[in-house]
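ugh ok so i messed up the first submission bc i forgot one of the chains. this is the corrected input, ALL of the components this time, i swear. 424 residues overall. if the numbers dont match what u have on ur side tell me asap before i send this to the collaborators (the ones from the other lab, u know who)
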Amino acid sequence: MLQVSVLKEQTDLVLAGLAKKHYPNAETEVAAILDLDQRRRQLQTEHDQAQAEANELARQIGGLMKSGDKAGAETLKARTATLKQQTKTAAEELTQVETSLQLALVKLPNLPHSSVPAGRTPADNEVVAEHGPKPELPPHALPHWELIKKYDIIDFELGNKITGAGFPVYKGQGARLQRALINFFLDEARNAGYEEVQPPILVNEASGYGTGQLPDKDGQMYHDAQDNLYLIPTAEVPITNLYRDEIIATEKLPIRNAGYTPCFRREAGSWGADVRGLNRLHQFDKVEIVQIALPEQSYGILEEMRAHIEGLLQKLELPYRVLRLCGGDMSFTSALTYDLEVWSAAQGRWLEVSSASNFETYQANRLKLRYRAEGGKTQLLHTLNGSALALPRIVAALLENNQTEDGIRLPQVLHSYCGFEKIG
RNA sequence: AGAGAGGUGGCAGAGUGGUCGAAUGCGACGGAUUCGAAAUCCGUUAUACCGGCAACGGUAUCGGGGGUUCGAAUCCCCCCCUCUCUGCCA
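and heres the new structure output, hopefully the right one now
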């Protein structure tokens, strides 16, 4: 959530940013917010003044009662009624205005960083790096959804039977490969200085709200109505919310956490072409890295996170490229996002396997996540996160890119983690 | 899940209708003492919002929400959470 103070003091900058994100009606909505804020201040002042008078009267009544002047107390009591009414009216209107203000504010996306390219669609994303040669495939190379059948390592039919579409069952070497990748990613994160955490995978409403999934993407999360809990779409949600409502001591910054969790996404409305096999699932595994940092450090840290993720892909010997997302393609809450895509050789396309973002203060504002700046004032921190990495598409690329006549050869780095060197 | 107890400042812990934002202790910070340190002593030590250039003033907050009252940490109702016992269970 953007800060009203920013809307007020840097209106032009805000409007330019919203335009880059292709947010419609920005001018009207920002103006409405500023009006609401003005009204809010006014009502707050009215309320406080009436309340202050009422408090003063109550104090006087207290004094009179103590000294036994009952009649005097009664006289003063008579005067409290109107004040009480004034306070009540102001408070009610204040609540209304605050609610409207909140609703309007929450609708605005984060402002893009100055380096974010203009543009509306994925075609406008900027390729900032490309690494590794694309492999030569043997004749009759298969896409991963054929390979998993051939080697019987992932079973979609079984998943259909016990749950539904998009919930595959990993078997044998497929299951072991999953476990190996998770361990590899977690070990790499630990070596890079991230503390491992294992959070709950169900979160409450406040958490969904804190990181911005709610109210925006309500329909994209699985929801348990009985207990009003949400299955997490990413470990970003529980891990970042660990620090909700906190004032973090600067010497503890930056906070670095890594966590493995399954992730659940309803993916309502996003089933079209290109979703075969492992390309898009309702449940998948991911290791996520999260950092909480001082504002002046956050962009350096984003680069560091990107380098960490690139390192993982290099160790896995996968060809990849890095995109800087354009204003129209980046997420609602992000200020700058790098997407990392691996080359899926048999499909002949790039698959997104990671997304690393700096949210600046957008999440922190909702989370009330602060530090104490020079002079003792509290200031909002910056939050960042990245996938390091999401498994299914990594598996897809590993299978497709490394297929040979006699099985699928796994990269060196996974041998000890898997306990085998090839599948099949 | 049932019965009972309880949720107060960074922590511990008083306070059961009237200057209570809240005693006291610990911790932290600043200062004095010291060559330096420990000990000791003095002081400071929440957050948000409103007004103000500021100094400062005001309002709210004692798990959350609502109510009673001139006045609520304190009384009433609902919800959440924690602990103990019983039951169930990986």
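quick check: The radius of gyration of chain A is 27 Å. that seems consistent at least. The mean pLDDT of chain A is 93.
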